[in-house]
Specification:
This protein is of the alpha/beta class. It is built from 15 helices and 17 strands. It has helices at 45-51, 61-66, 70-76, 79-83, 95-100, 127-137, 155-178, 199-211, 228-239, 256-264, 274-280, 312-316, 319-327, 331-358, 361-372, and strands spanning 2-8, 15-21, 24-28, 30-32, 57-60, 89-92, 106-107, 111-115, 122-126, 141-143, 188-190, 192-193, 217-219, 248-250, 269-271, 283-286, 289-292. The strands form 5 sheets. A 5-stranded parallel sheet has the order 4-15-14-13-12. Strand 1 (2-8) and strand 2 (15-21) form a beta hairpin.
Length: 376
């Protein structure tokens, strides 16, 4: 994997770049649609590529391990051949999903014991087998196994958890390095910065992660309930420490405004389920503000959803028609809304990239943030 910075904003830490993988180039900053179980919900691969213009999508180790299972994925020849997406893929290690199973998980130094949310069966994730699982899945970018702490989280627990994440990272690196080339995929491991919302822990974790000199680095444990300003402060602190010549990935973030503020602080990569989850409930992100398409005001609005951002779904279908579909619980409504919201997110990061290259990102970002605060 190669990463090259192609432009910087003079009034913020925003930067534009190009990330090269075996499955294609990724312009940054980039938003990555979440395809947890090998699919971005309600969206065809053709729509991802042609309409949304996604450059990379996510899969999830925990979910793919349970279903369809490693035997199926290995026999298919990896996730790219299984789901037909030939562009880059990133897999989360499953640490966040295990975190969400707080009632059934048991965390030990060796790893995490948990029960499947599907059938209650018992499983055990270690730093080593999570690397093996991601090797089998075959994503271009794989994540280190970590513990995602909740918010709020007391200092002593955050510190203890951070050090365990660092110890797990060393085991992840050892396993990845000794299995290099074993599965026939070129894969890059990203370590994850933890430390909750404590500045000294975040600083210590960022320094530790940077010292391993992997191909890229991630920032985890944020967007878990803390105030947005606190998230921005932690992001800025960490980005000042992580190496400038490596891509930075802020995990699970977030709203369009969160993404703009993350870009301003030097983040290159983002993911979040928000665009598709909100879409299924009729909440649309547009270039003029946020729309609740269920509101009666859209009942006779026969204008396109958002002609500014391009894409078939956003420019062909009207607000009135989409409102009708959502109100009658037609599956097509969720599909159109999902494609539209993802089109908006990719449009937003592309616009950010253009304005970084043009040298006026910061002023554009502030104007766009005002529009995004509008509830139409």
């Amino acid at each position: 994997m190669e990463f090259k910075i192609t432009g910087k904003d003079s009034n913020s830490s925003a930067r534009a770049g190009v990330l090269k993988t075996d499955h294609g180039e990724i312009p940054t900053p980039i938003f990555m649609p979440v395809g947890t179980a090998g699919t971005v919900k309600a969206v065809h691969q053709r729509e991802l590529e042609d309409d949304i213009q996604a450059k990379i999508i996510l899969g999830n180790t925990y979910h793919l391990y349970l279903r369809p299972g490693l035997d199926v994925l290995e026999n298919a020849g990896g996730i790219h051949k299984f789901n037909g997406w030939e562009k880059p893929i990133l897999t989360d290690s499953g640490g966040y999903q295990v975190y969400s199973l707080s009632n059934t998980r048991k965390i030990k130094e060796e790893g995490v014991e948990f029960r499947s949310h599907i059938d209650g069966s018992k499983h055990f994730f270690t730093a080593e087998n999570v690397m093996d699982i991601q090797r089998t899945i075959g994503a271009d970018i794989i994540m280190a196994f970590d513990e995602c702490t909740p918010y709020p989280c007391d200092y002593d627990y955050a510190k203890k958890s951070m050090h365990m994440t660092h110890r797990w990272l060393k085991r992840c690196i050892k396993r990845v390095d000794e299995t290099e080339g074993k599965y026939g995929y070129s894969q890059s491991l990203f370590p994850i910065v933890q430390g909750s919302v404590y500045e000294d822990l975040r600083k210590q974790s960022a320094e530790e992660i940077a010292s391993h000199e992997r191909e890229g680095n991630a920032i985890g444990g944020l967007s878990v309930g803390e105030p947005h300003e606190m998230m921005y402060d932690m992001t800025e602190l960490v980005c000042e420490i992580l190496p400038e010549d490596k891509p930075r990935y802020l995990m699970g973030v977030g709203t369009p405004a969160n993404i703009l503020e993350g870009i301003a602080r030097g983040v290159d990569m983002f993911d979040c389920v928000m665009p598709t989850r909100n879409a299924r409930h009729g909440i649309l992100f547009t270039s003029e503000g946020v729309i609740n398409i269920k509101n009666k005001k859209w009942q006779k609005d026969f204008t396109p959803i958002d002609p500014e951002i391009g894409g078939y779904a956003s420019t062909f279908y009207t607000k009135a028609y989409l409102r009708h579909l959502i109100h009658t619980n037609e599956i097509l409504g969720a599909q159109i809304a999902s494609v539209h919201n993802l089109t908006f997110y990719l449009w937003l990061v592309n616009q950010a990239r253009d304005h970084i290259m043009a040298g006026d990102f910061n002023s554009w970002k502030n104007e766009m943030a005002l529009k995004l605060s509008e509830r139409l």
